[in-house]
Amino acid sequence: MSLEQFASIVVVDTRSGGVQTLEVGGTPHGLAVAGDTLYVTDRSVDAIRRFTIGSWAEQPPIAAGAMPHIVASRSDGSLAVVNAADDTLTLGNRAVHVSHVPESIAVAVDGRVATAGSVGGMVHVFDRLGAAVEEHEVGGRPVRLLYAPSGRVLAVALSADGTIALVEDGVVRRVTVGGVPDGLAFSSDGRWLYAGDMYGGAVSLIDVARSRVVERFEGGRSAGALLVLPRR
Predict the structure, then answer these.
(1) pLDDT of residue 224
(2) In the chain, where does DSSP find H-type helix?
(3) Measured between alpha carbons, how far is 184 from 65 in angstroms, rounded to an integer?
(4) Is 6 helix (H, G, I), strand (E, B) or coil?
(5) Given 122, 137, 152, which residue is the final one in a domain?
(6) Which of 119, 143, 154, 220 could connect to 100 by a Cys-Cys bridge, CB 3.0–4.6 Å?
């Protein structure tokens, strides 16, 4: 995990419970892994910093746009980065303009990349080569995006109006969940979507096909990032 305000990255060994704090300096924020490398956005130097997993030796950084926020790795080994201060999405060596103040990236199984402007309120989707294929005006301060495992449905958390937008086949459906939606997680079959409420702490369970909330769970205060773990 990144601790931006403390200029550190924390590595937790889930088997042993060991915790290692790496004081890396700067403002580490977004994280992604590809191969044996950890990629970290750092807006203090407008770059993607690189660390070798295990030794944590730092490699030369990769230049990014203005204020890189989130980074994601793609199946071909390239990176996708949203740069919040210049409203760009970097796909490998190509930069494309996107909606104002992008804060999130979603990568589909077929290589499509989606992002949204938290202030501009637009969702943009690009193919794996960086060509624009879709755009949707969703409003509501979109802060998180996530593709279903199949890549057919894109979920967007609209933090300012208490709804989740579901984008499928060019159509946008909306599901009211209340509060301040943030973290998203699909079930492995894509039938269910979990959405966390950063304000109230509840987690809503959404039936994706029917676009409706079927259950709510109390998740504690400030329910942010979500992850569905496989059954053992």
Answers:
(1) 59
(2) none
(3) 26
(4) helix
(5) 137
(6) 119
